[in-house]
Design goal:
The protein is mainly α. It contains 5 helices and no strands. Helix 1 packs parallel to helix 4, helix 3 packs antiparallel against helix 4 and helix 3 packs parallel to helix 5. Keywords: Membrane, Transmembrane, Transmembrane helix.
């Protein structure tokens, strides 16, 4: 399995890292598990931003996975190029999460655009 495909797995796991931060920061208790969405909606500050980062991570992950799979199927790009793009995407997602938690809104948006650009790059290098 290629590094890029492993990065797809990592991308699908990152939202769970975010919700872990949200629940830990919100002092999650087992009894809150009866209605976890209500609990997450009640969060404020950094835990609330971690929850928002989780939602955004769920939104971008399928786009990234599709890009990696299409690039592999097209077979026109060098494998090392796909692997580098994938690692850069995961790096951008980690930076995005950090920016979200730190409440660096403008930098977070810039990092988000970089991540989307990296996803689009899979399609461009595969032509």
């Amino acid at each position: 399995m290629t590094v890029a495909l492993w990065c797809v797995l990592i991308a699908f796991l990152l939202p769970y890292l975010c919700v872990g931060v949200a629940k830990a920061g919100g002092r999650y208790r087992l009894r809150d598990n009866h209605d976890p969405r209500d609990f997450l909606d009640s969060l404020e500050g950094a835990p609330r931003r971690a929850y928002a980062a989780q939602l955004n991570s769920f939104e971008i992950s399928p786009f990234f996975a599709a890009a990696v799979i299409v690039a592999h199927l097209a077979g026109n790009a060098e494998l090392v190029t796909l692997n580098v793009l994938a690692v850069l995407f995961i790096t951008s997602r980690l930076l995005y999460i950090i920016c979200y938690l730190a409440d660096w809104a403008i930098l977070r948006s810039l990092v988000w655009f970089v991540g989307v650009g990296l996803v689009l790059s899979f399609f461009f290098v595969s032509v």
